[in-house]
Specification:
The chain has about 400 residues and is an alpha/beta fold. It is about 45% helix and about 10% strand. Strands 9-7-5-4-3-2-1-10 form an eight-stranded parallel β-sheet.
Length: about 400
Amino acid sequence: MDMRLKPKHHLVIAVGVLIVAVLTTGLLIKFNGLPVSAPRLTDTTKSPVVSAIDKKLASLSTSDKVALLFMFHTPGTDPAVLKDFVDRYHPGGMILMDDNIPANESDTLALSQAIYGDDKSFPRLVATDEEGGTVTRLPSDTYDSAANLDQKPPSATFTAFDQRAKLLHALGINLNFGIVADVTSDPNSFIYPRVLATTPSAAADRVEQAVKGEKGQVLSTLKHFPGHGETDLNSHVTIPKTNINFSQWQQKDAIPFERGIQAGANVVMLGQLIYSAVDSQPASMSAKWYSILRNDLKFQGLTVTDDMIMLLHSGDPAYIDPVKNAVAAINAGADLVLYVTNHGANTQVDPAALLNGVVTAVNNGEISQTTLDSAVKQVLTAQQLAGK
């Protein structure tokens, strides 16, 4: 018998070898993980979300990018006035204060819609401070707050913030600076009436539930990182300082923030206070604290400063220049810089001067293009989430 294979037999064997190879690879994938040589999808493709953000980023000028890094405020309840403001300055977002809430609360929706802008994929952020209780912008928010949540099980915090988020969502507000992750048991502390609990463990339980309650309705924010509970001073009028060290911070103040981050918080607000044993700068301008937030607590979302005008109110000459402060915050790691402009006495900071000053800092290399683009991507990501 002729034992030599005919051409068609070669083909059959080749196909059989290929099938065996595929099955073997499948077994390797199933039992041993991906082989070293096997390509991963993420090596060769990008998700639609990333592609859309990259495309948007590529379309922006330096001035456009800088504007996206700011959240401003202007008073009034006329949608046309707010639309004119955002059309002039093109900020990444606006914050609604009590002077923006109409007598008929439901009319707030028209304000939010005036702020969004024309790009439905990347609507502007519309924020407010709706903690409930001591800090309430919306009169109809009568839900449980820090005043009594410490005395109720953590599930009550979920319910309160779920209801609060539903109210905000109905009014078009897509970002809430509402979850106080600070912890203190000192009744003399400025922040005491606003904390969700007086021990790290109890506060963490409630912060976690607050984040889960807001999830999918508004972007949730933890504040005031790294923790206002270590001082009894009011950061609206001075720059509070504490000398507790990093290890002490890890054992107390870090715990509610870490739990909130693990629960999926979208935003972390950095406070205007100094932990002198860690850094001499206010946290909002401290590269060390942004690094701790990103690398130690593994936060991947949007970072925002507390109101930078608070630094001006401190009277400290080191922080008298609002442009210099903004540049320092951005270089430290802030994605969004908050200036509650034109809100009562001593808040008259010119948005145009701020924007022009930061554009100049980019053009002269004081802020790198890499730093700028990284922050803009975070803002665009938040806007895209808010638009879903």
